[in-house]
Amino acid sequence: MGSAPGWTGGGRVSTVLGRKLGGELYKLRVAAGKKQQEASDALSATPTKVVKMESGSVPMRDPDVKALCELYEADAEVVRQLRELARRDRERRKVKGWWDDELTPAKQVEYISTEDAALSVRQWQMAIIPGLFQTPEYLRAMGVADLSCDDLDRIEDVVATRLKRQARLHGDEPLKIHAVIWEAALRQLMGGPEVMRGQLSHLCELTKLPNVQIQVLPFRAGAHPCIGGPFSILSFAEEGAVDVVYQDTARSTIWYEDPAEGADYAALFARVAGASLSPYDSVQFIDSVSKGLNE
Question: Where is coiled-coil annotated (predicted)?
Fold first, then answer.
């Protein structure tokens, strides 16, 4: 029956439930053998609207959902479920978060809003310390290297945004995060030895939180299944929401929400975690790297 293509960031912000709804409508259309033009005709709209609906980038009205389901000859229970999904998605979109202010870079709004709704995150990181674990000093050093001289004033805005994100690690319902970090990220002297010692010490402190699990994949582990690049798998408590896989590269932001793709990435994460040091041994390893910076 096929699956909706991975959603690429840009334009209007979509939601987890919205993309779930759009993906279901996409699969119904493909199964019914209908073209986007036929769907747009049923809505008295343009094909562009159908594209936006199937990507989850716009909220959907009940009449539109009903019209498409009639075109696709979906049964009554499917129609009921999709209309309920549309209703919950519209309610979710009404909620405004701190990330909606002008200080948050547009590229990050979609991920931050999704992370805020998540129950847990599994993250594989190769070259840098995961964002939720970064100290302000580490982030500033990384920002200086990344931004041009004309953009340096933005660094403190980035730091402020990151600290707000990190608040999710604490509180009554903290975000659960299981991160696997390649040894390279621990040894890259971002900002110099003093900054890195502070960063590595912070990592060790974070492991004392019950909702944080950190593992290190050492160089000596050799070849591993995740050499292709970092990724995050976000899971949600909301009924009807599938796991979301997020990849951010220098040139694009990609989301995968097909259940089969999510299962593939979950299997990759499990394999790289299985090849890594245990959480206890990882803390000892991080501490040894930190002490080595004194030599």
Answer: none
Kindly tell me the burial class for residue 192, based on how many C-beta atoms sit within 10 Å of its own C-beta (0-12, 13-18, 19 or more).
exposed
Does residue 103 fall inside a structural domain? yes
Name the domain count of the chain. Answer: 2
Q: How far is residue 134 CA from its own chain's centroid?
A: 17
216-227 pLDDT, tens digit per residue, is 999 999 988 888
What confidence tier does 12 reach under pLDDT thresholds 50, 70, 90?
A: very low
Same domain flag for 68 and 149 = no
Choose among 187, 188, 180, 167: nearest CA to 214.
180
- Flag whether the pTM goes above 0.90: no
Residue ranges making up the domain that contains 30? 7-94
Strands (E), the chain: 7-8, 120-125, 176-182, 212-217, 231-235, 244-248, 253-256
Q: Does any domain span residue 1? A: no
